[in-house]
Specification:
The chain is α/β, with parallel strands linked by helices. 27% of the residues lie in helices and 24% in strands. The protein has helices at 27-48, 55-63, 95-104, 122-128, 141-153, 190-194, and strands spanning 84-87, 90-92, 112-116, 133-138, 159-163, 176-181, 196-207, 213-220, 226-234. The chain has a seven-stranded mixed β-sheet. A two-stranded antiparallel sheet has the order 1-2.
Length: 245
């Protein structure tokens, strides 16, 4: 999907967000979040090359009930355009970054996508609104269990959660049309590159924990050639596990 003129924010919001979600739930908060995301896209456009994000991606962001993916004590801040802690030393990413990373992998309706770092399941839910199936890997057992239960409650039956070291991907279901990594690795994991389909795209933060990190777009061409493009300076929690070292 290519970036085109953004629709009015209200048009991006459905009457009901997802299965089991009340009609119009926190709609004003969602509209405010989408406006902030669109403003960030314009501001970072000279760096990212995407001053306008895909309307389909923004609509998916508006449909997912972010307040269901954060701790209850933080529900009032769920639609702020910033990361929030979710426990176990992990965070739910800033909505703009979620939207940008989703937009960068150019999701299509029949895609199979791998996510590395399930967390609370928010990024997986956004992807699930746009693609055929999401395979997501989480290394923290408690987060994996909670995310799986949460996604099931919300009706996301096209997401499969796996407990494991995401830096090694999930070879069983490869190749993937897109890979989204939501934690920073010191280098691009070779296992993930190998699991990327021809014509596929992967986006991930690369850099040292607590140091400078860059959002990198990796693409595999039709002849198997692999290219990397630096997109934007970011800050993410580190990718844990053997491949994250």
């Amino acid at each position: 999907m290519k970036a085109v003129a953004v629709l009015g924010l209200a048009a991006l919001l459905p009457a009901a967000a997802c299965a089991g979600e009340p009609t119009g739930s926190r709609q004003e908060d969602r509209e405010r979040m989408l406006a902030a995301v669109a403003a960030d896209a314009r501001a970072t456009g000279p760096e990212t090359g995407r001053a306008e994000l895909s309307p389909e991606v923004l609509a998916a962001l508006g449909r997912v009930p972010r307040h269901r993916f954060v701790p209850a004590a933080l529900a009032s801040s769920a639609y702020d355009n910033r990361p929030l802690p979710i426990g176990s030393g992990q965070t739910i990413s800033q909505p703009f970054i979620v939207a940008l990373m989703t937009d960068l992998v150019d999701p299509e309706a029949d895609d199979r996508v791998l996510e590395v770092g399930t967390g609370s399941g928010y990024q997986a839910a956004v992807l699930a609104e746009l693609v055929d199936h999401v395979y997501t890997v989480e290394i923290v057992p408690e987060l994996a269990r909670e995310a799986e239960a949460r996604l099931e409650r919300l009706g996301y039956d096209n997401v499969t959660v796996h407990l494991g070291d995401g830096g090694f991907g999930w070879a069983e279901h490869a190749p993937y049309d897109a890979i989204v990594v939501t934690a920073a690795a010191p280098h691009v994991p070779s296992a993930l590159v190998e699991q990327l389909a021809s014509g596929g795209r992967m986006v991930l933060p690369v850099g040292e924990p607590g140091g400078f990190q860059t959002l990198v777009l990796v693409a595999r061409g039709s002849a198997g050639e692999v290219t990397q493009e630096r997109i934007l300076g970011v800050t993410f929690v580190p990718l844990t596990g053997d491949e994250g070292r």
